[in-house]
Specification:
alpha+beta, Structural Genomics Hypothetical 15.5 Kd Protein In mrcA-pckA Intergenic Region, Chain A, Pseudouridine synthase, 4-stranded antiparallel beta sheet, 23% strand, binds uracil
């Protein structure tokens, strides 16, 4: 999809701002006193070459060398600003900064990187971005709304893990008018399917003549969860929109548009995922 020029320009500025923040973290490590040592698989992922897991396989297969020596031990660390790291004999000369984008996903796209059936994926909407992005979690083909995309695997993993209780808010247009008893039943059923998690909540957002919009808060993602919850009480979903994920919203962004997260938004995500290293109260 071609974005109209104005928004495209805004997106580009926001994007460059994000890169400035993250790239300087990666490429200019302070005074030169700080070490950039990290595990080799992380370096491979940050260079945009592969995922950490696949990087581990590359290391074990003897494809990675540090300063001319093949390394096969998985815990090995190196400093990409000092050490010569190569894959299959080819030097890695650059790390990818972590980048974070918020997309207002339209219906008609799958939220995976590739689709076996050849359908359009959300990555088609972010073609101008030359980083190896992946979506954080999934929205169904016919679900719209907030979707985070990044190349930061560690943050993504934590935001999706039930342990971190990340809130997702959905608006679901359902057939018929659910009673308060039905809403209570949906909450109880949701609770039963998350015995160790936080209680989901359901309330009426607005009503029409033969349908209602429900506001549903969930704290972990399960496949087709909202559709299943509504179907189970006899109110099938006609339209589904995620309006919030981890505090992020797409207000003012038409479907199909995306923007880079501001540094403060990235910090807020890291705080939620307990990856924030800044001192308490700072
Ligand atoms: N629940 C669903 O049923 N579908 C989605 O896309 C997201 C949550």
């Amino acid at each position: 999809m071609n974005l109209p020029g104005r928004v495209n320009l805004l997106t580009r500025y926001a994007y460059l701002a994000t890169l400035r923040g993250t790239e300087s973290d990666v490429l200019n490590p302070g005074s030169g006193e700080e070490s950039m040592r990290m595990r080799l698989q992380r370096i491979l992922a940050r260079a945009g070459l592969t995922s950490r897991r696949e990087g581990e396989a590359w290391i074990q297969d003897g494809r990675v060398s540090v300063n001319g020596k093949v390394v096969t031990a998985l815990g090995t660390q190196a400093d990409p600003t000092v050490d010569r790291i190569a894959v299959d004999g080819k030097m890695i000369n650059r790390l990818e900064p972590n980048v974070y984008f918020l997309l207002n996903k339209p219906t008609g796209y799958v939220s995976t990187c590739e689709d076996d059936l050849g359908r359009r994926t959300v990555l088609d909407l972010l073609r101008p971005i030359k980083y190896r992005l992946f979506p954080v979690g999934r929205l169904d083909w016919n679900t719209e709304g907030v979707l985070l995309l990044t190349n930061d695997g560690e943050l993504a993993q934590r935001l999706l893990h039930p342990r971190f209780h990340i809130r997702r808010i959905y608006l679901a247009k359902v057939d018929g008018l659910p009673t308060s008893d039905t809403l209570a039943m949906m909450t109880r059923q949701g609770e039963a399917s998350h015995p160790r998690g936080r209680r989901p909540s359901v309330r009426i957002h607005k009503v029409g003549e033969r349908h209602a919009w429900l506001e549903i808060h969930l704290w972990e993602g399960q496949h087709h969860q909202v559709r299943r919850m509504c179907e189970a009480v006899g109110h099938p979903v006609k339209r589904l929109r995620r309006v919030q994920f981890a505090g992020l919203e797409t207000m003012g962004m038409p479907p199909g548009y995306y923007r880079a997260l501001a540094p403060a938004e990235v910090q807020a995500l890291k705080r939620l995922a307990r990856l924030d290293s800044s001192p308490k109260g700072a």
